[in-house]
């Protein structure tokens, strides 16, 4: 049992990361790619700038991730008109990308079930809300 938040979070994070990496490796995914697939599965055709925001990365970082995903045939990018006569890039899942995202979803749900085994739905919700509040508190310098 941990008596400090940082130890508890590091322990949970390490265990989750190890299990997640095994899933991602089986799917041939590198760091950053699972989050993109997960988000696009819920909102295909997002503007790249918005996708970068939702992924919590810079646009140049996302550009690199997407380049690798395009090479694997997971996503495609299309130029589109944006407000103010500018152009934007929309990101779409390919058929292979959607198939991989579906498998990823199943694997993530299974890992989530493992992590919350023995917890009631109410306790699960409480834990998630607590972690969000901790994140918010820490980010408020």
CATH class: Mainly Alpha
Number of helices: 6
Order of H and E elements: HHEHHEEHH
Low-confidence stretches: none
For the record, what is the CATH homologous superfamily label?
A: Winged helix-like DNA-binding domain superfamily/Winged helix DNA-binding domain
User: Structural class, from secondary structure content?
Assistant: alpha+beta
Helicity, as a percent range: 55-70%
pLDDT averaged residue by residue: 94
Would you give the CATH topology?
Answer: Arc Repressor Mutant, subunit A
Quaternary state, please? single chain
Q: Strand order, main sheet: write it out.
A: 1-3-2
Estimate the strand proportion. Answer: 5-15%
Tally of domains = 1
**How many individual β-strands?**
3
* CATH architecture descriptor name: Orthogonal Bundle
The radius of gyration over CA amounts to 18 Å
Major sheet details: 3 strands, antiparallel
The dominant shape is globular
Give the termini distance in whole angstroms: 28 Å
């Amino acid at each position: 049992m941990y008596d400090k938040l940082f130890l508890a979070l590091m322990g949970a994070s390490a265990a989750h990361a190890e299990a997640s990496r095994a899933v991602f490796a089986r799917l041939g995914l590198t760091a950053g790619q699972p989050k993109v697939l997960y988000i696009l599965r819920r909102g295909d055709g997002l503007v790249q700038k918005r996708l970068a925001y939702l992924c919590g990365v810079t646009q140049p970082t996302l550009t690199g991730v997407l380049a690798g995903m395009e090479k694997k045939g997971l996503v495609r990018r299309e130029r589109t008109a944006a407000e103010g006569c500018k152009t934007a890039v929309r990101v779409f899942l390919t058929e292979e990308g959607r198939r991989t995202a579906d498998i990823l979803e199943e694997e993530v749900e299974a890992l989530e079930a493992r992590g919350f085994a023995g917890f009631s739905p109410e306790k699960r919700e409480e834990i998630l809300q607590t972690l969000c509040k901790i994140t918010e508190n820490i980010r408020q310098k």
